[in-house]
Amino acid sequence: GPICLPEINSKDWDYKGQAKVSGFGLTKHQGSAAEKLKFIEEKVVDEKLCEKYFASFNRKTMVCYGSLKEGIATCQGDSGGPLVVLCKDHWIQKGIVSFGSKCGAKGIPTAFTRVKPYRPWIKSICGI
């Protein structure tokens, strides 16, 4: 089904369920691009971890997630892809792949741009 956008006045904690990222990025560090769309299961991690690894991490406009499987993570070519979370019976796009570290590096999360702060702008441009 379709992916929903977060409600403009929702609280962030409403969307901490199961999460997935999809993309055609590299399948390993310095590897080749995926031939088929790939999916990764992710979990929310403490934002302090993203602050530790990424000086440019901003809690107001970013969210921090990490892969559930070691050695599997977003990689070059996945930037701009969706981070979606399951909320009750539908998927909501919570984030957009922004940046991370070396692909699949153990214990290093990925920083995602939060969608919710941009909802008023999206509504003004697209009407949704």
TrEMBL record:
UniProt KW Magnesium keyword: no
* Peptidase S1 domain ranges (all copies): 1-127
Q: Name one Pfam family in it.
A: Trypsin
Q: Where can this protein be found?
A: Secreted
GO process terms (BP): proteolysis
In terms of Gene3D superfamilies, this protein maps to: Trypsin-like serine proteases
Give any GO molecular function from the UniProt entry. Answer: serine-type endopeptidase activity
SUPFAM superfamilies, A to Z: Trypsin-like serine proteases
**What does the UniProt keyword field contain?**
Disulfide bond, Hydrolase, Membrane, Protease, Secreted, Serine protease, Transmembrane
Subcellular location, principal: secreted
Task: Name any GO cellular component annotation.
Answer: extracellular space
Describe the family membership recorded for this protein in Swiss-Prot or TrEMBL.
Belongs to the peptidase S1 family. CLIP subfamily.
Q: What is this protein called?
A: Transmembrane protease serine 11E-like protein
Native organism: Leptotrombidium deliense
